[in-house]
What does this fold into?
Amino acid sequence: MQSVGVNVRDEPILLKEAIRPGAISGLFAAVVMSCAWMLTAFREGDLWRPMKMVAATVLGEDALLASGFQPLPVILGLVIHLAMGVALGVFFAWLGGFLPMGAAIIWGLIFGLAVWVIMQFGLLPVVNPWMAVLPAIPFAISHALFGLTLGAYPRFLPEAVHVPQVWRKAA
It folds into this structure.
């Protein structure tokens, strides 16, 4: 059977095709968002507070009691944050499919702000009340930054897809 070039822009992306580009861009976007949060927290006196606030989802208020670097809350918060970034990145790449870079960045911004709305007003008041009281505008800006960075996922898609036509029709 001969492989043929396929115009992938007219077809949906498979979940397995979205995993690598979504995970890479989601991880990168989560790191950028973490750095922005931590720089803001550093100006306020506790560089590690954002990661401890994320860890409070699991550890409760105990994660926030001590100032400075606390290994368990900081590492747990970072792991949770990065894992969420990867999961959201894969989901976004799967939804976005084969978008050109400009469109992906715009949709990434919209996606990041949608995640903020869901987190700020839906999930956080229930699962992490300590983060729910974060000022809305800086939290929204950090999610917009996450989304803008997440929109870089097309950069990690394979440049040319050469698969038999029958495989592409199954999607």
The CA atoms of residues 4 and 45 lie 58 Å apart.
